[in-house]
Amino acid sequence: MGKFYDSISGSLQEFIKAQHVFFVASAPLSAEGHVNLSPKGMDSLRVLSPNRVAYIDLIGSGNETSAHLFENGRLTLMWCAFSGKPDIVRLYGKGRAVLPNDPEWAELSSLFPNYVNARQIITADIHKVQTSCGYGVPLMEFIADRDTLTRWAEAKGENDLDAYVCEKNVESIDGLPTPIGVQVKSR
Fold this sequence. Notes:
8-stranded antiparallel β-sheet
């Protein structure tokens, strides 16, 4: 049976920090809209306080989380242990995208490696934390982070990355706008 907490304790912060992958779930308000679930890795997440987290979001083929947060803010993050004690941690909260031209970008981005393909930082204010067993999660061995996304972005270069974002990241698959899309359309 899962246990619920109001904040991220020190031991849960250590658990989160030790994991190599986490998952982000979001959904539009429309019952016909698509629920999104995205894996995240690399050195991309920080626990900012017992009730706030942030992760640097890299340019990819879609921007569903950002569109959903722009519409309704709902966000769930989940970690599961693939080695060691079989634990699962979920954080429930309200999130938003911080773009490179936003005032808090400089402070937040300084917490992460300098990724050439950083498109936004997702921040989440956490109102509920859940722990549960991970008895059904397989044991797996971490070998290394992939460098494919970084190499792809470096090969594209800044101008081609901007064009890619304008083509692929301005709205969700359901047609919801993203903050990046709103910014692009206002240029």
